[in-house]
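can u do me a favor
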């Protein structure tokens, strides 16, 4: 029972995050963030959630193929599936950027206690947990000048992770259409209204049997292979524009008329970004922030870039 509760908690947390709603408010149809995101720069937030976005990409590109032995007739069906992923240790931390004048002892003195050691006057980057990691460690600072902008270089904290080693993928619900050319088309679509502007997700995928048309390996009827590909889009007119593609090849065999096994290898790539404006009205925490990007009220730009070569059975 405990394992089931943990699984459901993890799944609900992930879906909540993946909708991009926990950190975004809406104003005049723009995505807007408030004072609680003063500790994030664009670079730090991008790297903090990058493992989660990799999970999103793998979720989108799961269930693109069932088997390569596609019948040469018209068909229609509904496919429901869910994937799960182990979280590797190297996905639990990232190089977080410090304010640019940290390390200049004429401006600020800093200290950090991490891994049983004391680090003084660090500069550049330090390792902090990603969203899948564990406990973060703040960097305490003592400005050496009481007047701005030097006085802005105060202590910084970093977001903690959820400390997990397994994450369920997003559920996949898709319409599967079969054609008498031994072709299979997979489609997904959902639209969520967000302050008069829709957030739209759709997928177009295709799986084409090859072995019935061209078979240099002279396979018998129990084996087949195909090529497949898919295009995904998650977009909102203002603030969200994410694309993903995948393509690969698959080999299937069958134990009986209704029991198949399939090997596949695919290339996956995701790109795009999320942009949110910063609400700095009446917010001294933002004005006095040690990060220049946050202090100047520049937009928060989350760049998305994941590239994966994935095999499955």
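np, heres the sequence
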């Amino acid at each position: 029972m405990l394992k089931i509760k943990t699984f459901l908690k993890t799944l609900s947390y992930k879906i909540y995050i993946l909708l991009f709603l926990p950190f975004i408010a809406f104003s005049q149809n723009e995505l807007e963030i408030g004072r609680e995101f003063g500790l994030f720069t664009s670079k730090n937030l991008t790297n903090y959630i990058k493992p989660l976005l990799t999970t999103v990409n793998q979720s989108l590109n799961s269930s693109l193929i069932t088997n390569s032995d596609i019948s040469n007739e018209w068909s229609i069906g509904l496919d429901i599936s869910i994937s799960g992923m182990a979280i590797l240790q190297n996905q639990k931390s990232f190089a977080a950027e410090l304010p640019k004048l940290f390390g200049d002892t004429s401006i600020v003195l800093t200290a950090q206690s991490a891994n049983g050691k004391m680090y003084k006057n660090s500069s550049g980057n330090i390792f902090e947990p990603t969203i899948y990691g564990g406990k973060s460690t703040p960097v305490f600072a003592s400005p050496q000048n009481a007047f701005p902008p030097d006085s802005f270089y105060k202590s910084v904290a970093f977001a903690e992770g959820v400390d997990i080693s397994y994450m369920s993928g997003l559920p996949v619900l898709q319409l599967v259409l079969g054609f008498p050319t031994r072709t299979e088309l997979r489609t997904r679509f959902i639209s969520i209204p967000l302050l008069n502007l829709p957030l739209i997700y759709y997928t177009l995928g295709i799986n084409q049997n090859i072995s019935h048309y061209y078979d240099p390996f002279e396979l018998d009827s129990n084996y087949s292979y195909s090529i497949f590909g898919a295009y995904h889009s998650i977009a909102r007119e203002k603030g969200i524009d994410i694309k993903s593609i995948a393509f690969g090849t698959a080999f299937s065999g069958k134990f009986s008329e209704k029991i198949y096994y399939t090997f596949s290898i695919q290339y996956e790539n995701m790109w795009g970004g999320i942009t949110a404006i910063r609400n700095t009205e009446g917010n001294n925490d933002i004005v006095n922030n040690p990060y220049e990007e946050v202090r100047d009220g520049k937009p928060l730009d989350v760049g998305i870039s994941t590239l994966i070569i994935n095999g499955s059975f």
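The chain is about 15% helix and 45% strand. hope that helps!!
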